[in-house]
Design goal:
Blueprint (H helix, E strand, L loop, with lengths): L3 E5 L6 H4 L3 H7 L4 H18 L9 E6 L7 H12 L6 E6 L6 H5 L11 E4 L2 E4 L15 H11 L4 E6 L4 H7 L4 E7 L5 H13 L4 E9 L12
Parallel strand pairs: 1-8, 2-6, 2-7, 3-5, 3-6, 7-8
Antiparallel strand pairs: 4-5
Helix pairs in contact: 3-4
């Protein structure tokens, strides 16, 4: 894969604190060494994913874990926050996960208004609740009409991050509405053979794979561990 990044575990802060921008947090207190490393890695991830030289521009990306127990809401919020930091782009953080409580509840954000398709959470950063594109949430499926609406909402932003459920046929359908999918692997949990099988299945489903992110890392992992996925 073209993109391999390893992210350290988030600091032990509440989810609500993660809703603040990196700039706001840095003004409140100096970054610890671990936070500084994480911050640098997030910026490197955004740079390589969205702003590297490639033939096709990448604007709209889904993040999906391989393991059902891997939490990715914070990661998606932080990637979206880094993109919004420049205040040059409008960023959408889209709830495309139909298998868990809403993104707003995961991040302890104020509930969105049912009358609004998008909900501002920071300068140049909006969230899109799943009910604004998914008509039958309890059925855990998406119709072609739903996917068309999701594509329409995504296109309203300069960049968008789609918070996806663990890899499934529905995740693959959702990923085809954007520029590609990033797989989130769990350190010390996701087996290499499983990740490779998931990669092959997504390729067969014609889902563009943009790379992998290693999350839930608790101690040093060799940098090249997943480089050949």
């Amino acid at each position: 894969m073209s993109l391999v990044q390893e992210l350290l575990d988030p600091l032990l802060e509440s989810d609500q604190e993660f809703a603040k921008s990196f700039r706001e947090r840095s003004r409140e207190r100096p970054l610890s060494a671990a936070a500084a490393v994480q911050n640098d890695q997030l910026h490197a991830l955004v740079q390589q994913l969205f702003f590297s030289e490639r033939s096709k521009a990448i604007r709209h990306v889904g993040f999906a874990p391989v393991e059902g127990s891997t939490s990715t809401a914070r990661l998606c919020l932080e990637v979206a926050t880094v993109l919004a930091e420049s205040r040059s782009y409008d960023i959408g953080l889209i709830d495309a996960n139909t298998e868990t409580p809403s993104l707003h509840s995961q991040l302890q954000l104020d509930p969105p208004s049912p009358d609004n398709a998008t909900w501002p959470v920071a300068p140049h950063l909006w969230t899109v609740p799943r009910q604004n594109w998914l008509h039958e949430e309890e059925a855990n499926r998406a119709t072609e009409r739903d996917l068309a609406r999701l594509r329409e909402l995504t296109s309203e932003f300069d960049f968008s991050i789609l918070w996806c459920a663990p890899v499934s046929w529905l995740t693959a359908s959702i990923a085809r509405t954007c520029d590609g999918l990033v797989l989130v692997l769990a350190a010390n949990k996701t087996r290499r053979i499983v990740a490779t099988q998931v990669r092959d299945q997504l390729r067969q489903a014609q889902v563009p794979l943009l790379g992998t992110v290693l999350a839930e890392r608790r101690f040093p992992v060799p940098q090249g561990l997943y480089k050949n996925l």
